[in-house]
Amino acid sequence: MLVDRTGNGHCIFGFRRDLRQLENLDVKILPAGADDADAIIATWNPIIRDTTVTFNSIEKSARDVAALITDRHAAGQAFLVARQGNNFLGFATYGNFRAGIGYAQTVEHTVMLADHAKGQGVGRALLSALESHARTNDIHSMIASVAQENTAAIAFHKALGFTQVAHIPEAAHKFGRWLDVVFLQKIL
Q1: Are 122 and 113 in contact (CB under 8 A)?
Q2: Are strands 106-113 and 141-147 parallel, antiparallel or unpaired?
Q3: CA 29 and chain centroid, separation
Q4: Is residue 112 part of a domain?
Q5: Chain-centre distance for alpha carbon 188
Q6: Does residue 6 lie in a domain region?
Q7: Residue 26: what pLDDT?
Q8: So what's the pLDDT on residue 60?
Q9: Which pLDDT value is given to residue 128?
Q10: How far apart are CA 175 and CA 171, in angstroms?
Q11: How far apart are CA 50 and CA 52, in angstroms?
Q12: How far, in Å, CA of 148 to CA of 167, rounded?
């Protein structure tokens, strides 16, 4: 399920090379299952606990993640994992951007990688697979909500065709300080 094209047919710079690298490394992008929950929390909880990558400060349990996977799949939303053999590399998912029928075709996504998987094209492959799934399900727009200080995530999204559409000062609070939030959007 690796995809190297955007919805309008323009190749993402460097993405074909990344895909070839991933295929040579036997990396697979697969739908997540409840049996992935332990690997997901092993990646996600340190990010929750130690960084401003996510604004949540409450760590997830394997049961929480298994339920989230089940709920996302039941709602027709993607929850994907990247694996190299038995080695867990990361996950990506999307869910509703806001409640209400008017927002039904706009989603907000999450991409999280294990430290050893960063810089290898795994995040690009996961996000591309999310976009492909979203298009298939008539999703019109994807949103990334990123701490302004997370310049790597902002650059990652911009490199993949997302445009910064909002900057909200002091919208989140974590570690005893206020954080500015940047919204990036991609029309699919």
Answers
A1: yes
A2: parallel
A3: 13
A4: yes
A5: 15
A6: no
A7: 82
A8: 97
A9: 96
A10: 14
A11: 7
A12: 8
- 3-class DSSP state of 35: helix
- Residue 2 has what pLDDT? 33
Q: One-letter amino acid identity for 120?
A: Q
Give the residue numbers spanning the domain of 164. Answer: 15-187
In 104-167, which residue ranges form alpha helices assigned H by DSSP? 122-136, 151-159
Which ranges of the chain have pLDDT less than 50? 1-20
In a domain, residue 2? The reply is no
Q: Residue holding tokens 């939303």?
A: 77
Beta bridge partners of 107: 96, 142
Q: 31 and 73 in contact (C-beta within 8 Å)?
A: yes
Q: How far apart are CA 126 and CA 112, in angstroms?
A: 9
Distance CA 8, CA 187 (A): 10
Instruction: Work out how many domains the chain is built from and give that number.
Output: 1
CB atoms within 10 A of CB 155: 10
Instruction: Report the predicted TM-score, pTM, of the whole model to 2 decimal places.
Output: 0.86
Domain of 77, CATH number, reads 3.40.630.30
CB 143 within 8 A of CB 185: yes
Sequence-ordered list of residues with C-beta below 8 angstroms from that of 131, at least 6 positions apart, any chain: 3, 6, 7, 142, 186, 188
pLDDT for the residue numbered 23: 54
- Residue the block writes with tokens 């992935």: 36
